């Protein structure tokens, strides 16, 4: 007898509860909002002003909602790539670095050929960015497959290296000579910019590419044999081994897809809203996308919704910084607590709670 | 002082944040739990210690605040990962993000402020030896950290407690069957690991670089996790690894001081690059990993 027997216990459900699957993210979001509002009260901010700025303002005008769409793009793209790997139990948490390498690779064209013109420039940049991200991720894949090194640690370390590489380029060889010593590249020429999708906003064609790739991710994961093999590898590695599904193949594929998507997102960011390579090209997209992927249930369609939610939090956090004087770090706190709340909520998908009283009637433990 | 002397005298202090956090994570992993939140736990400890010391609480209280705060956050990890049996990788990442966010939130008004570090204590005679003498001139926390290393080594090597922790990590079902409280052991290990990460952050923020800046932990928590792998879950090797990383992080400064024409960004990324390389070298020896590795690391325990 110990203190743990007083607590309610989790009993595995015979089948996952589908109601809980859909409810979990909603409940998690509600709980996270309540917890964070409590925190804002503690640090002396007006919770009503924060709610207004954070959760309502993004929807109140088309201009601000278009910013939500703009923010959702990279989150959606990166999360789709990561979720494929997470389902195969390949934990690529270095999307931040792959995003940065995508942005750097794409910027090579306008930085080296600032006078070039032609409609080929921005598509070439996106392609180059995606390849750059995939190549950066391939280092992790090689380390994992050939050297047996943990992909979580290697991909994360590579993100820290990527951030230093970006700093080096912007303070050194790629610094704009006429940029008043700011750590940023030259402004890109017109043809290096992804065309605008909705006039009057910053939303560009890359959103369409992102949605198309989300559809492709859905087809890949739900309908294709390759996606099936990946999922089996994640759920039952041994069974996958017996069925001849190679784990090395799964690792390479997961990381290359993740790196490709993150790299593309990085390229779309510099060729889109930014128009130049800057130090602050990412506000933690690579890490936030991990939360987006989980909150979407690692499902391509769920991720579309969760990317929008996360984008609202980003834009709303920016608003709250201005109007409610909320430190921008509050967004990171919100992200962390949202993921925690979600992880608790999904426990109810697989388990149901049993209180000790009821548990005693249905004894299924062997006497010890 | 030449570069070699500079590295020898600074190595132990530079190694201390790595070592404290890695020792904590060692105990957690030995109990079969993978807590990837170390970076966030360190960040929270760093800011709590800094605020305490800045407001005149003194270094001792600073470390107490850091230890308690980070242990409390690590208990959130314990509740979610053990209580709700969530995926440990995801839970650890969430704790990491949350801890970094909280540290930035609490530390916002302290940005770029400084506090006074602790004085270095010289060993009589030993500190006067040429070249290596600097090794024996350290602040009190370094000496305590070395003592803690010895204690943890002794605990795993000689004590019954060490045996129980290892049993819980190797085969929780068997440990449960012979009457060991698996969950209690794991929760206590997680709290201990959290407190150690908090101390590590405190050392970084109020002694090693007594200045607050958001993001000042700069990946050291992740390197600490990697150190546990480098050390193949053995205390002595983790100590050597921490010293290596202390030296590597000083090499950058030493190179700059001697006026070498190397971009500073390359020097700052040196610890990360070395981590990647060493991780590859150690991990490719699968026998070595298996020999001392923890069999059920990261797997949830269900009765």
Compact overview of the structure:
Helix content of chain A is 70%, strand content 2%. Chain A is built from 15 helices and 2 strands.
Described by strand count, sense and barrel closure, the largest sheet of chain B is: 2 strands, antiparallel
Number of strands of chain A: 2
Give me the secondary-structure category of chain B: mainly alpha
For the largest sheet of chain A, list the strands in their spatial order: 1-2
Q: Which value, in Å, is the CA radius of gyration of chain A?
A: 23 Å
Structural class of chain A: mainly alpha
Strand content of chain A: under 5%
**Form type of chain B:** globular
Q: Which pair of protein chains has the largest interface, and what are the residue counts?
A: A-B, 53 and 55 residues
Which H/E pattern describes the elements of chain A?
EHHHHHHHHHHHHHHEH
Please count the helical segments of chain A.
15
Summarize model confidence as the mean pLDDT of chain B: 93
**Separation, N- and C-terminal Cα atoms of chain A:** 11 Å
Q: How would you describe this protein?
A:
- The complex is a heterodimer of chains A (368) and B (303).
- Chain A is mainly alpha-helical.
- Chain A has helices at residues 18-42, 47-60, 62-87, 95-112, 121-147, 151-171, 206-223, 225-235, 237-242, 247-274, 285-295, 300-323, 329-345, 347-350, 356-361; strands at residues 9-12, 351-354.
- In chain A, helix 3 (62-87) crosses helix 8, helix 4 (95-112) runs parallel beside helix 6 (151-171) and helix 5 (121-147) crosses helix 6 (151-171).
- The N and C termini of chain A lie close together (11 Å).
- Chain B is built from 13 helices and 2 strands, in the order H-H-H-H-E-E-H-H-H-H-H-H-H-H-H.
- The radius of gyration of chain B is 19 Å and the shape is globular.
- Classes of the chains: A mainly alpha (368), B mainly alpha (303).
- Chains A and B meet through helix 5, helix 6, helix 11 and helix 13 of A and helix 4, helix 9, helix 11 and helix 12 of B.
């Amino acid at each position: 007898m110990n203190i743990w027997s007083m607590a309610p216990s989790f009993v595995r459900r015979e089948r996952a509860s589908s109601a809980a699957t859909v409810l979990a993210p909603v409940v998690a979001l509600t709980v996270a909002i309540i917890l964070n509002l409590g925190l804002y009260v503690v640090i002396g901010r007006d919770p009503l002003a924060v709610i207004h700025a954070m959760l309502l303002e993004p929807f109140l005008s088309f201009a601000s909602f278009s910013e939500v769409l703009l923010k959702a793009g990279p989150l959606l793209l990166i999360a789709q790539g990561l979720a494929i790997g997470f389902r195969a139990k390949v934990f690529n948490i270095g999307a931040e670095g792959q995003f940065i390498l995508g942005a750097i690779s794409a910027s090579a064209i306008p930085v080296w050929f600032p006078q070039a013109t032609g409609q080929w420039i921005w598509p070439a940049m996106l392609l180059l960015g995606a390849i750059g991200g995939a190549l950066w991720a391939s280092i992790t894949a090689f380390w994992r497959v050939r050297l047996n090194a943990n992909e979580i640690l290697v991909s994360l370390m590579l993100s820290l290296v990527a951030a230093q590489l970006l700093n080096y380029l912007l303070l050194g060889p790629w610094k704009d000579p006429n940029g008043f010593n700011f750590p940023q590249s030259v402004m890109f020429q017109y043809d290096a910019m992804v065309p605008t999708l909705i006039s009057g906003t910053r939303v560009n064609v890359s959103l369409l590419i992102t949605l198309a790739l989300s559809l492709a991710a859905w087809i890949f994961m739900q309908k294709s044999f390759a996606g099936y093999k990946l999922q089996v590898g994640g759920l039952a590695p041994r069974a996958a081994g017996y069925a001849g599904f190679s784990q090395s193949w799964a690792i390479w594929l997961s990381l290359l897809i993740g790196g490709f998507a993150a790299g593309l997102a990085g390229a779309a960011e510099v060729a889109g809203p930014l128009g130049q390579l800057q130090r602050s090209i990412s506000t933690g997209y690579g890490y936030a996308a991990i939360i987006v992927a989980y909150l979407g249930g690692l499902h391509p369609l769920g991720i579309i919704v969760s990317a929008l939610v996360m984008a609202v939090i980003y834009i709303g956090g920016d608003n709250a910084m201005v109007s409610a004087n909320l430190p921008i770090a509050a967004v990171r706190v919100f992200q962390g607590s949202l993921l925690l709340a979600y992880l608790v909520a999904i426990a109810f998908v697989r388990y149901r709670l049993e209180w000790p009283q009821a548990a005693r009637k249905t004894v299924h433990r062997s006497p010890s | 002082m030449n570069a070699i002397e500079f590295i020898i005298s600074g190595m132990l202090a530079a190694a201390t944040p790595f070592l404290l956090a890695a020792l904590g994570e060692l105990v957690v992993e030995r109990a079969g739990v993978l807590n990837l939140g170390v970076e966030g736990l360190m960040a929270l400890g760093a800011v709590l210690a800094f605020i305490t010391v800045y407001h005149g609480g003194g270094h001792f209280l600073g470390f107490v605040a850091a230890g308690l705060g980070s242990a409390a956050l690590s208990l959130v990890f314990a509740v979610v990962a053990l209580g709700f049996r969530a995926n440990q990788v995801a839970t650890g990442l969430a704790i990491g993000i949350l801890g970094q966010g909280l540290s930035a939130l609490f530390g916002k008004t302290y940005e770029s402020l400084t506090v006074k570090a602790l004085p270095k204590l010289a060993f009589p005679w030993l500190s006067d030896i040429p070249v290596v003498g600097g090794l024996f001139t350290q602040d009190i926390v370094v000496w305590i950290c070395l003592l803690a290393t010895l204690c943890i080594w002794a605990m795993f090597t000689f004590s019954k407690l060490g045996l129980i922790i290892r049993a819980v990590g190797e085969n929780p079902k068997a440990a449960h069957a012979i009457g060991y409280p698996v969950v209690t052991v794991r929760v206590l290990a997680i709290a201990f690991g959290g407190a150690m990460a908090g101390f590590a952050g405190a050392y970084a923020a109020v002694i090693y670089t007594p200045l607050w800046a958001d993001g000042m932990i700069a990946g050291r928590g992740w390197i600490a996790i990697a150190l546990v792998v480098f050390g193949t879950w053995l205390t002595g090797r983790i100590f050597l690894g921490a010293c290596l990383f202390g030296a590597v992080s000083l090499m950058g400064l030493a190179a700059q001081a001697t006026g070498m024409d190397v971009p500073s960004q390359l020097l700052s990324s040196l610890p990360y690059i070395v981590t990647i390389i060493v991780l590859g070298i150690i991990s490719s020896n699968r026998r070595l990993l298996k020999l001392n590795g923890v069999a059920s690391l990261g797997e949830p325990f269900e009765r």
